[in-house]
Amino acid sequence: MAEKSKKSKNSSQFPTWLVTPILLLMLSASIVMLSYILLPTHSVQKYLNIAFMDDLKTKDVSSGLNIVNKDISKEDGGKGNGKVIAPKFGEKYAILECKDIELEVGVYFGSDAELLALGACQASNSSILGLNGNTVISAHVNSYFSNLAELEEGDTVTLYTEYGKFTYQVAELIRFNRSDSTYVKGTTSDILTLYTCEAQVLGNSSMRVGAVCNLVEKKLYDGTETPESPTIDPNTAVPAVGTEE
Amino acid sequence: MKKALAYIGNVIFSLLLVFSIMGTCVSVAAANKGMNVEYCLSLMDSENLVEKAQNTLKAHFAEQENTTGVPATMFENAIAAEKLDEMMEATIRNGFDYLNGNVETLGIKPSFAGLDADMRLFYSSYADMYGYAKDEAYENAVDEAIAASEQSILGAVDVFRFSMLDDAGVMKKVRPYSPWVPRAWKGCLILDGVLLLILLLLNVKKLRQIWYWAGCSLLSAGVILLVPTVWLKSTEWFDRFTVKSEQTFAAVTAYLYGLTDTVKLYAILCLVLAVLAWIVCGICAYRAEKKRKAAKKNRKPSGENR
Fold first, then answer.
1. Contact, B204 vs B10, CB < 8 A?
2. Are the CB atoms for B184 and B31 separated by under 8 Å?
């Protein structure tokens, strides 16, 4: 009798011994997930998102940069369905045109020596075209932005993307030291900042010249409202990664 | 009721032991790899960082030739492999020394005397050829050009971007805590010991159960550490790193993957130890059962009821 009760006790304990490791694993995993949600990791998360945002990677890329050259049409009826399409690092996502200074150049997302050799580059921590904030685009003075210094107030700058057309007007001509981040910070107003190195007879210049342009027309290709994008916060100044042009 | 309370007590302290084991694994990995300057220096050879930095600089100065007029060949001596190797090693050591509080300033100041002299001579000849006045503006422009070239070289050898991290305020935030990283694993190990002792006291009547609970904690710690490390490696997540200069990309991704591999190894070790602990528990339980049956057999002739 005593033996039967011991056997039945052992058999009822067995599931507990089997379930306990799973229970402990689930409890630990839940605590880890809760900590991730509740702890203030937003600022770290923001830096991680910017530092590791290039998801165009393929296995064949050796140095790390995967360049995607897209054909951007200047005509209406591109993709997008009225929504802003966030570009990937290394992707050509716009054409910048300024007829007043005979400028037309492709714009790549991300600022990198390799991309600067191909066209103008948008700082990856600046606002994507179509979203609120400061869109910052730069290029080499000895190539694509060689005549940027000819811009005058009132000139029209147009950017064409797959999902919309954005027209700006030059509001202010600027000149700043490369260590000055005043013009490359995020803003609440919709502006476009273009800049390049100041041309100098001898050597590199530490000064940058360009223009700040106000948005005058935003046209998404089926006329619907622009949604908010969670990708980049335009109101926070974050040091840009990449090289100087 | 007593057994239920004992069970809950074991679960609670085993749960604490899970996080303590995870802390031990991560802190050991951080001490051996994360904050280990020799590991970072070993990446210089394994990832050919010097060669990559040299290629970047050659391309940079070749590109700059159009703007500045300075021939790229002028920089050949300044960016020779041996010099870059020295500067890169010095930069990495300086970065870690700064993090650990051994030095107060970040950045190295190598001698660019040769480059300085060559560039001044070049600009002087250029100015003479075009009748450019060698006034204060000229001197400032030359100084700036030389400084920019030196900065380009120093930037290229700063493969872990210590200066950029410093500008972003990250180095200053990490600096107070980094000397504690090599000691953290000792604290975690002591905590592991304390929690095991508590589990021992909770299971003093059946000591073999300590192996079971230790195994449960090791399993949970191993799985929680293994899953993200396997995911990071299989998705090649660190390849999404946005700084694409060859040497920096290679250095940072190799460093992070190496750290991930180390944590993965410790996770697998935890799982192996978990299995071993359960095997020991099983052996102890089997032997105890055998002993009990043998004792019962010996008692039977005198104590059996009919």
1. no
2. yes
Q: How far is A131 from A170, CA to CA, in rounded Å? A: 19
Strand, helix or coil at B42?
A: helix
Distance CA A67, CA B303 (A): 87
Q: Which two tokens stand for residue B150?
A: 């030196």
Q: Can you read off the two tokens belonging to residue B58?
A: 């050659």
Please, is A18 exposed, middle or buried when counting C-beta atoms within 10 Å of its C-beta (0-12, 13-18, 19+)? exposed
Separation CA B239–CA B236 (nearest Å): 6
In-domain check, residue A129: yes
Distance CA A16, CA B189 (A): 29
Terminal Cα-to-Cα distance of chain B (whole angstroms): 34
The whole-angstrom separation of Cα A190 and Cα A130 is 9
Helices and strands in chain B: count of H runs, count of E runs: 11, 0
Q: Does B67 touch chain A (CB under 8 A)?
A: yes
The three-class DSSP label of residue B71 is coil
Residue of B240, B249, B281 to mutate, interface with A, max A Cβ within 10 Å:
B240
Do A128 and A159 lie in one domain? The reply is yes
Domain assignment of residue A211, yes or no: yes
Quote the CA–CA distance of B250 and A62 in Å, as a whole number.
Answer: 9
Domain that holds residue A36: 2-56
What is the rounded distance in angstroms from the CA atom of residue B37 to the CA atom of residue B32? 9
A185 with A147, same domain: the answer is yes
Same domain membership, residue A77 and residue A36: no
Here the ipTM equals 0.80
Convert the pLDDT of each residue in A135-194 to its tens digit: 999 998 878 898 898 999 999 999 999 889 999 999 999 999 887 888 988 888 999 999
Q: Which of B56, B70, B220 sits opposite A24 (nearest CB)?
A: B220
